[in-house]
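#help-structures
NK: newbie question, is this the right format to request a structure? protein is Replication protein
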Amino acid sequence: MSWDKSHNSSVPQTATQAMQPLETPWIDALRRLNADTDQRGKSWTLPVNPGQEASIPIWTSRDGWMRQVRYAITKTAAGRAAVTQHRIGVESMLAIANAHASSADSKTGRRVTATVQNLAARAGVSESVVKRGRRVLKALYLGVELVRGRTLTAREFQAAEVHHGGRQHRAASVWALSSPPELVAATSAPPRPKKRGSSHDRRHRAAKRVRHTATTGSNPNPQARGRDPLSLSGLSPKGISCREVITKRACARENRSSSSNRTNPRPLDLQRAASALVAAAPVLAPSGHIGVVCDVLVRSGIDTTRWTGRDIARALTADTVSRGELWPNAVRSPIGYLTWRLCRLDWSGPSPSELRAAEAAHSAQRRAARDAERERARRAAASPEHRRALMEQIRDTLAPPRQAA
């Protein structure tokens, strides 16, 4: 066989054809479908009909929508009737609303595509409670179900596989969170406090004014002109030696260091309480040193030998729930917010740790009393020898008397 015949066979042509890109118009169509339906994230969501969201008001904001939910279920007759009808508590309803709000688009409140299972896990309730909470949102016009969750069609299944590369057989419902105008008017946002400059800025401005005054004022040491700028004699007033200036500065440094060394450290239980409080409520974490939290606890009159950080966090959470509120996700001034919250509570009563310790002591006393009672009953019971002696005595008493011969 010649060289031309062996290298002009059909095998290289087949390999060349296999290396060419395949014509896949159906994949391009699926990609266009994903682009038209604005698919994003790790799951494929059901498309919403165009114009369906036009008649639904968007929410004001996440915090504003949560205020509206809280106001509707606690202050309005329709809201109280809705939570009563669907057998759901205020705390559970707020947790469900918070889970929906965290899944919604931050600007519009739409595109809530989380599954009921994920919402239940995020809110800490069961799936049936999430479904009842959705009925309350729908009844109060705070949420609208745009598309009911269902099994994907064959084309949607293929589009989902093109979108995220996995197999998805079902898609969750698509919800839109809304702010009714009457609730928006009833729950206006609280006024924001006037922004003040930081302490660093104030100190910087004060130092700048002092330097400006010293520069523009009269020269207190006119004889220092023309001297060597590195000479200490030019910096000291007339009549005071350089040695005296250096000695005074050294004494000032010693006094400053000795006074700082005499500063007593904060008690260990106070530091532990502040650390545990910040760990249980991260929104209270200060931007600087945690010692500022210790100072707030001291100013609030909390005895950290009785109140642990977890006890303080639980008391704040109980006060939040009793007022129908929620812990904020972030605050502008954590220390100011903590001071305000602590001043609203009475810390003179027993702490949860003390109550648990007292209950444990009572339980131990009850167990000891039961053990002592069982021991007394055991000791009061007759021994086998004592029972045999009594039985012999009874038999002798009941036996007929013997007649004399």
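mod (FA): yep, format's fine, and the tokens are attached above. The longest helix spans residues 352-380.
NK: thank you!
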